[in-house]
Automatic annotation (TrEMBL):
InterPro entries: NST/OST (IPR037359), P-loop_NTPase (IPR027417), Sulfotransferase_dom (IPR000863)
Region: Disordered, residue numbers: 48-94
Name of protein: Sulfotransferase
Biased composition (Pro residues): 52-66
Positions that bind 3'-phosphoadenylyl sulfate: 110-114, 191, 199, 316-320
Chief localisation class: membrane
Amino acid sequence: MGQRLNRCLDAPVALPPLRRRLLLLFIMLFLWLYMFYSCAGSCAGLTTRGSPAPPRTAPPLPPLLPGEPGEEGSLEEQRAAPDAGSPISSFFNGSGTKRLPQAIIIGVKKGGTRALLEFLRVHPDVRAVGAEPHFFDRNYERGLAWYRELMPRTLEGQITMEKTPSYFVTKEAPARISSMSKGTKLIVVVRDPVTRAISDYTQTLSKKPDIPTFESLTFKNRTTGLIDTSWSAIQIGIYAKHLENWLLHFPIGQILFVSGERLIRDPAGELGRVQDFLGLKRIITDKHFYFNKTKGFPCLKKAEGSSKPHCLGKTKGRTHPDMDQEVVQRLRDFYRPFNMKFYQMTGQDFGWD
């Protein structure tokens, strides 16, 4: 009995030729994946050698301040947004290195920052945070290590990005970002300040239907026509004033100004400028977009990691309420000198007048 068992164990197992080939292919694929993963981990280790290791536990996402609506949709929508990246880097979860952002979309609220970020995430060399970190305005005391831990992992040659539109109007933000890295590239998406203010009001109205009318909030005194610049919806649109603060810490050439209107009319053209500014190959082109007539703005034919078309969420493209045209005209007259100064400072005419 024992001799018979030994003979069975010693005898080679004969597999059909097709199974042998499949087994060999599977082994080769497994070895290739193992070598690739090991290489990715080693490369990431080399880039971080000598720098302190980030905390292992994932930090909580930054909270919204009480009573403050989110800049670009609800915080729940932002938290649901996945980080972008190439399929390979996404597949190898944990590969790459968490780095502080080399580029930040700093503003402005209701200008088109979410659209720009979603479009940029199509690029395989862009990795971006889905939610707005609000580090340089609300969470600065948590420190750079906390901020870095929020960032997605990147491989060599990829750019880490984030967007928080309220940075542009935060007095302390320019100095804080400069302290992190003087070489940080900044992107500002601007839009006709009157349209932007109405869009801002419309977003707040959708969350708080009992707020006063746009017209009553616009003026300190309706009779004298004195504009209330303390109202954030008005104050954000004084772009020249806010830009002066940034130019104390960054040269104008380190800031790219994207037109929110052109981003809708010609998304590929504006994305071409952004890719050039970031030093990226022009991969995002006309072939990536189609115009959604229902929403009134461009959508992606295919989002990153998906074969389906992708439009921004239901909070985008809200219908604006009817406004008193006299109030709209007074706002245009108010903004005109500030717009002219902004055109001179940036060297661009945005055509708002």
